[in-house]
Amino acid sequence: MANASTSLMVRLDPDSKSFVARAAQLRHVSVSDYVRSVVVAQARREIQAAEQQIIALTPAEQQAFRQALQEPIVLTAAQRALGALMRGE
């Protein structure tokens, strides 16, 4: 049974299903083949990143992360109160 396979059922809302179907059509493959190729490839990337302890960010996410690091921290009143409590004030 070298080519044995198993089924995986996925529920999608109509809008999501439409996007998946359109993407499959663009690649000229069935919806099942599209989902299989995209999901398996993404799963492999995530497992590899986890094993290497790497966080992968898109260029937009990288920019947002850099920007967040450069902005001054503004604590809420609750955060300031918690900090005082932890310091024993």
TrEMBL record:
Keyword annotations: Plasmid, Toxin-antitoxin system
One BP term from GO: regulation of DNA-templated transcription
Domain of life: Bacteria
Gene3D superfamilies according to UniProt: Single helix bin (1.20.5.780)
InterPro entries with a match to the protein in the record: Ribbon_hlx_hlx (IPR010985), TacA_1-like (IPR014795)
Family: Belongs to the TacA antitoxin family.
Designated name of the protein: Uncharacterized protein
UniProt source species: Candidatus Thiodictyon syntrophicum
